[in-house]
Amino acid sequence: MQTVVSGIRPTGKLHLGNYFGAVRNFLEMQENYRSYFFIADIHSLTTHPTPGDLHGSVRQVLAEYLAMGLDPEKCSLFIQSDVPEIMELYTYMNMNAYLGELERSASFKEKIRTQKDNVNAGLLTYPVLMAVDILIHKADFVPVGKDQAQHLEMTRQFGNRFNRLYDVDFFPEPQAYSHTGELVKVPGLTGQGKMSKSGGEGDAVFFDEDDKVIQKKIMRAKTDAGPQEMNAEKPIEILNLFDLMGLVCENDVIEKFNDDYNNCTIRYGDMKKQLAEDMLKFVGPIRDRIREVKSDDAFLSSAAKIGAEKARESAVKTVKEVREIIGFRKFY
Ligand code: ADP
Ligand code: TRP
To answer: N or C: which terminus of the chain has fewer CB atoms within 10 Å of its end residue's CB?
Structure first.
């Protein structure tokens, strides 16, 4: 059976982009793959959360994963810091990651710009830790959004370099996965690019937020003056709204608004109202479930425990083999 690994940093509530870019694939893959899905709490230390915030965010994402349908019996749903072998392999892999290539990573360059007063070494070696998350389970596939493609390329690079250095065929080459064949990019509501929790006020639709808030964000999404000629090309903010409709609305509804756009009779207010209505239909049941799960301590605890046990079993095995390959051999 092939193996899949993916993780999300616990830095807030999950939004539609996280769901369609990542979690929807997890749900499908847990049925047919040896699956490891985790909460990347060690990664989130790069931004120095307080202990209370960190714990609260991990709890939130754990409840959200479970509410969205991840099944602790079918996959290994675990918290990264529950698997200390990850840190051990991270140390080894850091010896074969070079300063130049780490400095060239797009995410590091972005952090240098946006997080000027906290350019810590963990940020620099973030791609190594991510590679370890993946390699430690010898993953074949990694379901992630488009923004993670470069990190995956680096993962392959680090794995292959280890194989070459020790002349072994140990780590497989993990490939990005999306059920559509192409990595997904869910646009944000403020028209600036991908939906993101750091995309500013009103950009993301979160699952764990009230109907009214979601409705308001959608009704405020930017539009233009409307098409001035038949079959006009759609500007980016209108394309974005159609993309979002593609995720939650029925095809005939989308076609109707598309026809309206093409013959210049579209009313953006009506379109956004429809989008909001269908969005609430989709988000509502998941949100209710998140709120139930969040207060179910016994469920959270048993899920995290089974996940940690399964993930450790696989991680311990890999690290033991890596130690032998590297040449750490016992004298006693
Ligand atoms: P954010 O950009 O909100 O900080 P993360 O970086 O924590 O989100 O992303 C976690 C996972 O969700 C990653 O696999 C990422 O590729 C995916 N993801 C996040 N936003 C989007 C989006 N707008 N479209 C598609 N996938 C996304
Ligand atoms: N870097 C990913 C993000 O920012 C999160 C992540 C960490 C991850 N380790 C991973 C994703 C391993 C897939 C596999 O979203």
So the answer is: C
Q: Among this protein's residues, is 109 annotated catalytic?
A: no
Whether 111 is catalytic: yes
Contact 128, 97 (CB under 8 A): yes
Both tokens of 17, joined, read 């982009």
Taking the chain (332 residues) in runs of 10, the rounded mean pLDDT of each run is 95 93 92 97 95 96 98 98 98 98 96 94 98 98 88 97 98 90 86 84 95 96 92 94 97 97 96 98 97 97 98 98 96 94
The one-letter amino acid code at 39 reads I
DSSP classification of residue 44: G
Distance 164 CA to ligand 1 centre (A): 32
Report the relative pairing of strands 34-39 and 3-8 from DSSP bridges. parallel
Q: Taking the complete model, does pTM exceed 0.85, yes or no?
A: yes
Angle at 91 between CA 87 and CA 93, to 5 degrees: 110
Instruction: Answer whether 272 contacts ligand 2 (Cβ < 6 A).
Output: no
Q: Is 319 left (phi over 0), alpha (psi -120 to 50) or beta?
A: alpha
Catalytic residue selected from 197, 256, 273, 317: 197
Tell me, what's the pLDDT at 182?
77
**What was the pLDDT predicted at 255?**
97
Q: Is 194 a catalytic residue?
A: yes
Ligand 2 pocket check for 133: Cβ under 6 Å: yes
Q: Which residues 6+ apart lie within 8 Å of 191 measured at CB?
A: 221, 222, 236, 237, 240
